[in-house]
Specification:
mainly alpha
Length: 64
């Protein structure tokens, strides 16, 4: 069995969240910001493919 001091440290480590260092200029804004737009990855990929096709088609239809 672990001594009490080690078990307290272990519990403290398990509860602690991993956060970026504020001294390095990184501040954790993710806790305050919850109003983000949620989009599934396959929608992003489909939009990128569609955008690419539109650009290629416009390139052939309207030569510069």
């Amino acid at each position: 069995m672990l001594p009490k001091s080690r078990s307290k440290v272990r519990r403290r480590k398990e509860k602690r969240e991993i956060r970026p260092l504020s001294s390095a200029g990184l501040i954790s804004f993710y806790e305050e910001f919850e109003g983000r737009i949620k989009v599934k990855p396959h929608v992003i990929i489909a939009m990128a493919v569609l955008f690419t096709l539109v650009v290629v088609l416009l390139r052939f239809l309207i030569p510069l």
